[in-house]
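G., the chain you wanted modeled:
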Amino acid sequence: MYKDSYPPLEPECFYHIYNRGINGEDLFKEECNYDYFKTLLVKHVSNEIDILAYCLMKNHFHFCIQLKKQKVQQHFDVSKKFSNLFNAYTKTINKHYNRTGSLFETPFKRKKVSSDFYITQLIYYVHANPQKHGFTTDFKMYLHSSYNDILNRNNTIVSCTKITEWFGDINVFINYHKNYQKEVMNLSSFD
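Predicted structure as tokens:
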């Protein structure tokens, strides 16, 4: 049976979901791994959550999500579904790269986000994270985040309508990210 020291994720609440490779190991070893992880994410949790922002980096990831409204009164354990996602991904990576054991730190980390200001800052933080950690010199060019997916309305796992509504319109979204880009290196309250 799945055990987790965190309280259960609550319907309609916002969360910062993040994790890294065990002992700092890379989670994404090749480009194809990023798409495979997103495919599993859709398979395991997309019916339960709306994704407002994501960023997948070589050795860790971040999501800003909102759990969907519960349709019927039943046990609603999204944490278990996230665990199933991580286990499925680990099994595939282990088999493909001839490795054994855990790939992710467990349990995955999550913070409930209750203020609108914090949610807005979190969305920016998720997008700016690859620049903060030196994976790119400009987070707006990073390929494995939702920033450009939202701008281009690509076939994405992000709820583009929800994110646009959150900021008011796409121009406010763009300007918010542009105005705070100089603050990338000062973002530490989300880790």
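The mean pLDDT is 89.

Shout if anything looks off.
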